[in-house]
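S.,

Sequence below, as promised.
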Amino acid sequence: MGFGFDWREWRNRLIARPGFQRWAADFPLTRAVAQRRAQSLFDITAGFVYSQILYACVELDLFDRLAAGPQSLSTLAPAMGMTEAQADRLLRAAVALDLLERRGVDDAGSARFGLGNHGAAMLGNPGIAAMVKHHRMLYRDLDDPLALLRGEKQETELGRYWAYASSLDPAQEGDASVSEYSELMSISNAFVAGDVLDAYSLKGHRCLMDVGGGQGNFLLAAAERWPHLRIRLFDLPAVAARAQRRFESLGLGDRAETFGGDLMSTPLPKGADICSLVRVVHDHDDDKAMQILRAVRAALEPGGTLLLAEPMAETPGAEPIGDAYFGLYLLAMGSGRPRPPRELKAMLREAGFDAIRMQRTRRPMQTRLLVAQVT
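The prediction came back faster than expected:
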């Protein structure tokens, strides 16, 4: 039996015709749409080049160099270790991506460059620069994307980097194994904490336990906003030890506790009335993700609350981040996948949570928030 007329197939056949593409680019009512579509397709094709321009700027500390104001090509080139012709090529490329802006010429006629909109935004988000540098490993893992997708790569750079993802006994990982990725998570999660805490007030809670909390960035942000709040952190023993030293150095020893263990085998301590999972669940495959949710449920008494915060698949307007970027990143890491809210809600219900709701966040492209209760 046929399924009748499918307008999408008709549309696709029409768009694929070179004659229609030329007509759409010329016709006044469709010209702007055709140009946007062509630009979007080219941006996908050239995306790797764009990312390498950004990487070069970050490696050269260009944004920090220009933070105090514009500089001339003749000044920047030697600082970049390049001839003026070489530096000009990179600077012009950065201008095209709105990382930099041209600011006229100096008295000697040398072109001047200052921060563009994206470059200025980089200064306020050090986590982005850290991730740009970190992406060198992802690029190497994606040198043959089909081999990665088919599971033909025996080992990946990201799999080695994220020690807990591939370790048979992650609780035995020492400080040397966890230090580098702990620092990266500490930097990259800093801007996530503010969005989550703006979306959900902890004023009515007494004790927050952050599960998989790394070096404690989320807890520190919460403790600063709500001085009455006691904080707890659970992570691998080596990571928890790093967090404990940090809490003590900041004078929070009387308010903070840390617990080390393996989420897959170590019961979580009870006593907190609210728990948080910040960018934790999407790092794990379904069976381990369910173990984590059940472990948190077991640690919470009736009336307890869970905050589950992470970038999610199928986020309106940000589908490439959840479904494309994190889909391939987590595959290269060797563990986890981005999930849409409907799947996470189903998992939370299966784990024993009720009254599950989506809480609006300022920047859903970077993190969305589900709030669940224990009744």
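The two ends are 49 Å apart (CA to CA).

Coffee later?
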